[in-house]
Structure formats: C-alpha cells, structure tokens
Amino acid sequence: MNGLTISQIAKGSNVNIETVRYYEKRGLISEPPRTESGYRMFPKEVIQDIQFIKRAQDIGFTLEEIKKLLCASNNENFQSEEMYQFANNKIQEIDSKIHEFIQMKSLLEELAAKCPGSGVPKDQCPIITNLSKGEIEDG
Amino acid sequence: MNGLTISQIAKGSNVNIETVRYYEKRGLISEPPRTESGYRMFPKEVIQDIQFIKRAQDIGFTLEEIKKLLCASNNENFQSEEMYQFANNKIQEIDSKIHEFIQMKSLLEELAAKCPGSGVPKDQCPIITNLSKGEIEDG
DNA sequence: CTTGACCCTGTAGTTGGGTACAGACTCTAT
DNA sequence: ATAGAGTCTGTACCCAACTACAGGGTCAAG
C-alpha cells in the first residue's frame, strides 16, 4: 500500500495536520485507506482537494457549501437540479462581491496615492471622507 | 438633543440592536451622546458607517482591519505611513481574491450551463472534474 | 531494544463575530 | 398611575473553523 502520510499531505497543502483530520471528519475529503497499523495513506490528489477547499473558503464559501460541491462527486444519485440552483445563486453572490471588491480597491488605491507615506495630516487623506460616505461612486 | 435611537439605527442599517452596541464596544463606531436618562442618540451618519462595515466585512475584512480604517478618522496623531502600507497590502490581497472569484465564477457558470436542471447524470457534469483539478485555467 | 519522530483517538480550548437573556429603568398613551 | 414598548448594563451562550493537548501505539535507526 502506497500513498502519502498525513504530514506529507499537510505540508503539501500548507495546512496543519489537525486540519486534515478535521476535514476528513467533516466529510470534505473522503476517508483514506489505512495501513495495517491504522495509519492513513492518502492519494496525492488530496493535496489539490485541500488547496481547492482553501481557495473556495478564501472567497467566502463555507465548509458546508464546499462539501456540497465535493460530495456530489461521490454521489451516484446526484441530483443536478439542486446543483444548478446552487451554482446560479452563488454566481449572483460572486458578482456583487466582485463589484464590492472593485469599489474597495479603488478606495484603497486613492488612499495609497494621496497619503504618500510620511506625516501627511489626516484631514488631507481622502480615505477617511470616502469611508464615511458609505457609497463609493460607481464605475 | 436629537438624533436616532439605537433601534432606528439598527433598522436603518439592517443589523440587530445588540450588534450596534457590540460595534460600539469594539470601537468601530464612536460612543454617541446620551439623553439625561442614558439613552443613546446617534447621529444619522452611523447608519452609513455600519453599512460600510458590513460591506467591508462581506469582502473579507476583519473588524480589526475595519476599525483601523475608521479609527484613523478620529485620531489627531494619525500616521499616514501605516495606512499607506496597509492599503497597499490590502490592494494585493484584493487583486488575488478578484482573480479567484473570477475563476470560481466561470467554474460555476460552466456547471450551470451544462447541468440544465433535471436528472443529468453526474459524470456529465463538468464541475466535478474541474473541482478536482485544483487549478482552473488562467485567462 | 530503546529513543525519537510520527501517528492514532478523543476531548477540550480558542478566536471571531455575534446573539440572547436577566433584571432594572424610562417613556408614551390611556 | 399603570401597561407595554423601548432602553440600559452585564454576563452568558452560540456557531464556524480550527488548534492543542492527553494518553497511547508504531516504526526506523543506531
């Protein structure tokens, strides 16, 4: 029996060992085969899976949502309808988040450009006034 | 003394009352004046502030980071240098998150397009294979 | 055949961001 | 003057997502 140990997986996907076990317990990665003595031996693809989980998480997916995506791949009775709904909802959310990101980014760019780094008095810094406006101009 | 009560603020910014007090305790919004009997009377701008907090949070800023931005506006000894650093770091983060969003979005769009909603067998749904690839083509 | 690195299970603790009372005061309308 | 809605402080609880042990087994090197 070959494969990767849990610490190799952890190192390879840059999370800690406990997190790998946690994801297994939560059902995000499937239970790997074990050696006779009970050690987990992971297929190397698990590293990619965990990296995907991390990226998805990074952009605001919860572990439950990520599980939903990943679990479908192991489900013979996979119902496409539900996935379709889910995907479309998520696309909406992503669109508005991208919009907010772009707004926030231009706010921060303005700040960086006009507060050039040393002792500029705060009332000359545009971020403060912009922030309190609550709405950044749309473009 | 006029202004808005805490429940008007909560309703107006679509959070609950406890959250308004919580933000005050955390220093995200400044302590409002009080009536003689101790009731908070908020300037109406607080609604915008809370909406800003919520949007910023939505795109992954922590309350501490948001506080950093908002607090600067009340700080006479505001040091622009730190803000400049902060803004530039955040711009980097935002850029890579936007990138990830766009990848995820096209993944979901593919899914939605090719799993048109009823009983499509899972092995014809591209999301599953794409997901396990771990990396979506760049473009 | 022991030492040290690695692995196991299980349970408890932590952090971030709220949310829910309890017990008491205030304000408005009747 | 009293009911009912609103507010106050303070403490406790909650959920997601980890993270850290404790107590014990495994394995390769010397």
UniProtKB/TrEMBL annotation, chains A, B:
Domain HTH merR-type stretches: 3-72
Protein name in the entry: Hg(II)-responsive transcriptional regulator MerR
UniProt keywords, alphabetically: DNA-binding, Transcription, Transcription regulation
InterPro entries, per the entry: DNA-bd_dom_put_sf, MerR-type_HTH_dom, MerR_fam
PANTHER family xrefs: HEAVY METAL-DEPENDENT TRANSCRIPTIONAL REGULATOR HI_0293-RELATED, REDOX-CYCLING DRUG-SENSING TRANSCRIPTIONAL ACTIVATOR SOXR
Annotated organism of origin: Alkalibacillus silvisoli
